[in-house]
Amino acid sequence: MPIPTKLSSIKAEVPSLLHLACFTMLFFMAITSAKAQPGGAMPDMSDSPAVTRWLKEKNIPALAVGFLENGEVKQMNVFGELKAGVPSRKDAVFNVASVTKTITAMVTLNLVNAGKWQLDEPLAHYFTDPDVKDDPRSGRLTTRDILTHRTGFPNWRSELPTGKLGFQFDPGTKHQYSGEGFEYLRRALESKFRRSLAQLADSIIFTPLGMRDTRFTWNAADESRFAYPFNAEGKQLEVVRNTEPNAADLLKTTITDYCKFITWILNGGGLSEALFKEMASHQVERKANSYMGLGWVIYDLVGNPVGNPVGNPVGNLATNGAYALSHGGHDPGVHTIAVVLPKSQKALVIFTNSDNGIKLYPDLFKYYLGAHGEAIVAIETRKNH
């Protein structure tokens, strides 16, 4: 299948800043910047006026938060302004950036679960990018390589001197974040099933879950309720109104819709117990106590609170093999993240429309997830491997 001609123009508008979607770098930036910033203490999240004041102190226009407990939505709110003078609303539409990949991953894994797709089958059976057709490594690339970010590709081909896609190392040999990998997977899926990724997602996820406000491309009807992106200085940025879908980026959704998706994940995500376990398994190490699973970052949380070395048992964390599934996203003027705790049946979803949005993560993690949230922060900011 040909490469969409508009993809390169879309990525030109969302430049190499997307490379910062590498989760470790984002989280480290969050903690260090949060510590350096002035501003009042975190408010009670049930006090909407106080939260709005807090956001203004942080120079963040809008914040959407969803908190799930016992496998169900417990709190869900949207605060602040979508743009200057436009109040937030519960059905506000956010660009969730790289959190898009969680949808693509779960579409793929549900096809695997149904016996219609294989994790370790070469994608060359269905698609080969013209840029790598003469490289024998293209014949070895698999879905597992893509979902674990071991393709050997850069984040985007525009980062390479030639502007063409190429392998920087052999597939499956090490971890390197790549949006190109997910786009490669999209083309392979679309080639085999003769359906677009949007159609596959509609049939597998969006329609069954009632996610009526979620789409891969821009919808002009959402203009009045869209959370416009803002830079760190509070300047409104240009909206990327993409007409071509992207498996790695630019999904538009609401906090209500995405919490439906996360509720589904907490209830197994349509997968067999064995496949869910494989999805949450340690496919490749990112850093101490953090791994890539299949489409999700995995955190081992037992013995990892603030101030404790790796592996030390502690009293304020459960010892039942607690772990988290997570994925973050960053585009210019956008910071988003989802964290899922399958053992305790809790989850947290955060959408912001600001380059400053990541500064809220440490406080929100502690507020909603307690010691487990602090453990994730500790893992991402620990300097030793």
From TrEMBL:
Species of origin: Dyadobacter soli
InterPro entries linked to this entry: Beta-lactam-related, Beta-lactam/transpept-like, Diverse_Enzym_Activities
Beta-lactamase-related domain ranges (all copies): 55-363
Pfam hit, one: Beta-lactamase
Name of the protein described by the UniProt record: CubicO group peptidase, beta-lactamase class C family
Superkingdom as given in the UniProt entry: Bacteria
